Amino acid sequence: MNKVVPEVQGLTGTGRSYRRGAGKMSQSLAHAMDAEGFGELLQQAQQLAAETEAASELPHVARNLQEIQQAGERLRSRTLTRTSQDAADVKASILLGSRGLDIFHISQRLESLSAATTFEPLEPVKDTDIQGFLKNERDNALLSAIEESRRRTFLLAEEYHRESMLVQWEQVKQRVLLTLLGAGEDGLDFSQDLEPSFVSDVGAPGRSALDSVEVAYGRQIYVFNEKLVSGQLQPNLGDLCASVAQGLDDKNVSDMWLMVKQITDVLLVPARDTLKSRLAVDMQVAFTRQALNFLENSYKNYTLVTVCGNLQEAHLGGVPGTFQLVHSYLNIKLPTPPPGLQDGEVEGHPVWALIYYCLRCGDLAAAMKVVNRAQHQLGEFKHWFQEYMNSPDRRLAPPAENKLRLHYRRVLRNCADPYKRAVYCLLGKCDITDNHSEVADKTEDYLWLKLNQVCFEDDGGSSPQDRLTLTQLQKQLLEDYGESHFSASQQPFLYFQVLFLTAQFEAAVAFLFRIERLRSHAVHVALVLHEQRLLLKASGQSAQLLSQEPGDPPMMRRLNFIRLLMLYTRKFESTDPREALQYFYFLRNEKDSQGENMFMRCVSELVIESREFDMLLGRLEKDGTRKPGVIDKFAGDTRAIISKVALEAENKGLFEEAVKLYELAKNPDKVLELMNKLLSPVIAQVSAPQSNKERLKNMALAIADRYRSQGVAAEKSVDSTFYLLLDLTTFFDEYHAGHIDRAYDVMERLKLLPLSQDSVEERVAAFRNFSDEVRHNLSEVLLATMNILFTQYKRLKGAAAGTPGRPQRSVEDRDSQLRSQARVLITFAGMIPYRMAGDTNARLVQMEVLMN
């Protein structure tokens, strides 16, 4: 194909005549095949050739019949053997030809490169072969360009792919976060309105992003932190938070805080290692004992309320106490004893029912009273119960426990009295698979029964399947049953109670936090646990809200305390920054994966987000003294925090705020460095009221006045650049105001530009020491100065023409001086090693020419 194309292209000029002649020739040849002799065929061919030659300007093709036949056979074979690649070449030629590219020449050039498939440099040729050397160098340059382009293409594709994956991953993380929070699509759509602080007397009411419950909790956190930072006796945060529940008129919340206070009120002092402390047997025993006490007291209160609400049926009377209370309660619950209850009655009620409910109310003495009254019907049970009652950990000795279990398996497993079976299972901690649903018909009853059966030490006398450990109970409640079994979405406080009473504090907090209306309760429960060093915290901020780290025991979860607080405060940190700061103070001892203090990090983000720089960090008075901010009472060294916030503001491009913060942190180097960056783009602008230049100029002048009065100096190069930019600001202000002579005097005093031929070399050498902030304005300075000289020149000419009596000598001297200064400026502009913007040089030359 590639060899045919040039021939066809060479014939395009007379293509129509060629096609007409070729058509006639083919018709004649076809007719000649039927002719009777070679002579007639030859005669017709010669006639046809003569007509074709006379009718067109095509070059004469001299071929005999054999050559024509061979050429036809070649064309035929090429047509028959044409591959898909040839078809692709034809399509490529058509496509590239429409864009002005010749694929034939391009393919020839690529084929000439011997390393075109590998893009490796060609082998060098002999030095004496000039043509070969140049060709080789050219080919190597082409190969290098191709390889570099290929490498950049792959790198760019990988970068785009990585960025796309990161964007998709961020979207996935946001969806997962919204799911965990349980807040739907608007879970993070927090209000941005400004609001007052409850610790402040200023601000319009009704504009806070905090609801009434969050405000009440926040007030207690403020009280707690105030006493903590002032060095007073540390109050009990649990009591402060529980006092909030008293004003909410919500029994569920009140019961929740009563439970939290009781469970966490352990007499043991937590160790530094919370994990070891939580795994210690004595700590787990203490948690279980407190949980049982809570369940027993709650049930006793429930019994009392039930009896008081049904006094007529209860027949309450006799000596006050648990026995009489249970007796009256059974008058309501079991007015007629059901069949199958064994071992007689005491004062008209079944013995085992009385014993069970006395135990359920937590009164062993009342249960012992029932046992004593019916001891003849109970056999050896009295001795076992006495030992159980006198045991400090409510556990029978191994021999007695084994004997009781054996008796239960042989005699009582299929007993018809559910109360008797329940009491024996409590004392012997046996038959852990029986849920005793006949008597434990509520979740609290089931939980109380199972906690009583938990064993903390292996006595060696029972098989593992007969022992219930706390870990097994936790797994059963959290994983085997789970939220759906307890209808957690409809009864969140019940499921929270189930997890909390089994020492699964982290899972309980994480569950409650997912419910928007209960989130504030979950956060403050976590704060109470944190202050008592009972909270297992995740080691990094990137972990999930509830996670398990390698090496942790089964069912031991960790709470991402940092993320919990940050998610909670995100709702109001931009509108209630002081309240958010109170919560961030709990992170003062926490660090992220990079080792950065989380309190400082959160404070810096809070200040940047809320823009309450003066209120949170303090402000600088006119005399240079610093007025304290809210942060001062939380940190002794506020300079470190202010510097951190200043760095964050600088990194986010908030240079004006960063200048104020660096000045608060007493860092003049950074103050002037940033001011130089701010002033440089605006000094050549026209100053107008409320403009950026006017604001920045006033800001810079105030800083300069303070530093001069206080004797503060920054690093020499930064300091000199700052004051030079201020002087240039004055120069441009005078220039734009039309005060040409004043502007000229300013420039002459600055000695920035040469105004005489003798000072050109000196000014060029000095220019090398100027910072980029000054160099950036060189074009405007040169144009303004040249315009000043040109204006003075025109004014001089006009004055000379209007006052004929003026001395000619002085006019000529001044005229010569101005033109000389203009030439000096052009010389200076050409000598400095700096590329000026736009058509600066052309405009300078134009004005200099107009002065001649």
Automatic annotation (TrEMBL):
The segment annotated Disordered runs over 1-22
- The principal location of this protein is nucleus
Q: Name one GO biological process term.
A: poly(A)+ mRNA export from nucleus
Q: Which InterPro entries match?
A: Nucleoporin_int_Nup93/Nic96 (IPR007231)
**Entry keyword annotation includes Transcription:** no
One Pfam match: Nic96
Compartment(s) of residence = Nucleus membrane; Nucleus, Nuclear pore complex
**Keyword set for this entry?**
Membrane, mRNA transport, Nuclear pore complex, Nucleus, Protein transport, Translocation, Transport
The GO cellular component terms are:
nuclear membrane; nuclear pore
Q: What does this protein do?
A: Plays a role in the nuclear pore complex (NPC) assembly and/or maintenance.
What family is this protein classified in?
Belongs to the nucleoporin interacting component (NIC) family.
The entry's protein name is Nuclear pore complex protein Nup93
The record lists the organism as Paramormyrops kingsleyae
Lineage, please? Eukaryota, Metazoa, Chordata, Craniata, Vertebrata
